[in-house]
Design goal:
alpha/beta, FAD/NAD(P)-binding domain, Enolase-like, domain 1, 7-stranded mixed beta sheet, 13 helices, globular, binds flavin-adenine dinucleotide, binds 1,4-dihydronicotinamide adenine dinucleotide
Length: about 450
Amino acid sequence: MPDSFDVIIIGSGPGGYVCAIRAAQLGLKVACVEKRATLGGTCLNIGCIPSKALLQSSEEFHHATHKLKDHGVLVDGVKLDLARMQARKDEVVNANVKGVEFLFRKNKVTWLKGTGRITAPGKVDVDGTSYEAKHIVLATGSESVPLPGLDVDEKQIVTSTGGLELDQVPGHLVVIGGGYIGLELGSVWRRLGADVTVVEFLDRIVPTMDTEISKALERILARQGMKFRLGTKVTGARKGNDGVTLTIEPAAGGTAEELKADVVLLSIGRRPYTNGTGAGVELDERGRIKTDARYATSVPGIYAIGDAIAGPMLAHKAEEEGVAVAEILAGQAGHVNYAAIPGVVYTWPEVAAVGQTEEELKAAGIAYNVGKFPFTANGRARAMGDTDGFVKLLADKATDRLLGAHIIGPDAGTLIAELTTAIEFGASAEDVARTCHAHPTLEEAVKEAALAVDGRALHI
Ligand code: FAD
Ligand code: NAI
């Protein structure tokens, strides 16, 4: 008799592993299949965690070389030990993936090591061994989108995976795609000394963000030395011993030119990864697994969550769906509020957003008020020497309900949590404005922006 479980989850990224823990907490017998040698999926192994480790380390280097002298701290002979920086990143990853293994043991989740393939309803094969399950959850994640004509070797032409592993700082890094990955990894290598050029197809970077914020980010990153070729497409690449020669041309058509790079980072998006699961589930026009509001796929007994289904490809979105589907399978009412999922780009300054952008409100014909407050007028930001950026809040004109929050500035990724909670609770801008915020904190800029919605900011 094959081993049998209440739930088998295929994939141990933030969607899969969180689903496994929650299902186990609810008393279900759970197994999670993972083919990678370690748990944690893209996020812990080659995504969120290693990129944030390198962003932190490169920021420390940038502080030492550029910012400390403003504070009256003089350090001579600052040198980069990239091998140590990379080793530290690996240690951080290792601690995190081992942490998931510990959580699996603690919650009695069985890790089935190998590639999971659904062979029949309720039956999963893992590298030749059969298992049975009442429910199967696909949490197989995503992979980088390739660009025709660009042969990724993870050395000269890299995806984020190779871009996190470089063993020397490239002289010139060309980034194709000015989204989350391009700007974060572009920032890492820029801070460590590379010339960085971002080639973006559209006329602005981070196109999913509020336009005013994306324009401000472009200006600030340009001041940090990043170069931008907007409205430009890459049409070819030639590898040589001395680097890669890219052919680029205006997106709207026009004269082609060449751009030489030591390393090219391809970051034009990610696509759902559903290969080899044998699930036979229906996909949508973008290759995402189709699900209903309860994460059920077109095949009875098979559910799907995370990057493999529709919605933003973010770790915390996958986690929320993991919890929701576990609760649904245990007979509870799991659900995710997609109107309150924050997004953060971990450049410096950081960019963070939750809810709707100004463009989305205009397109939907919703009347709104705007409240803005710059970090130049925030005492704590001045004390930190980090005054780039602003908070922008959008509230319904008739009801004052908070509809969107957009921050570019120091620690924006932390500041957005307050506004995510506010949106989750259906708060008005005035609710935020009348909440006492500690002084002196960056959060006071949030309060001031909320006051500004009603034209009564105090410190500007
Ligand atoms: P994944 O994390 O992709 O996990 C899927 C797992 O399934 C993989 O381990 C894979 O090996 C396994 N698998 C697939 N098929 C099978 C099979 N048949 N059998 C067994 N195992 C299988 N998001 C954020 O929110 N914040 C960030 O800061 C952030 N930074 C990122 C940085 C980079 C460089 C990248 C690439 C992504 C980043 N993301 C970030 C996105 C985040 O990593 C994803 O949204 C998240 O990992 C999705 O989780 P998931 O569980 O759906 O899938
Ligand atoms: P992205 O979707 O964020 O950005 C891709 C960019 O490439 C867009 O600006 C797009 O207009 C541009 N583009 C598309 N085709 C192009 C082409 N042919 N030439 C030039 N530009 C082109 O995708 P990215 O950066 O690859 O990241 C994938 C996903 O991973 C993100 O969307 C996000 O969901 C997740 N992620 C999240 C992070 C975070 O939360 N901080 C960090 C890194 C990744």
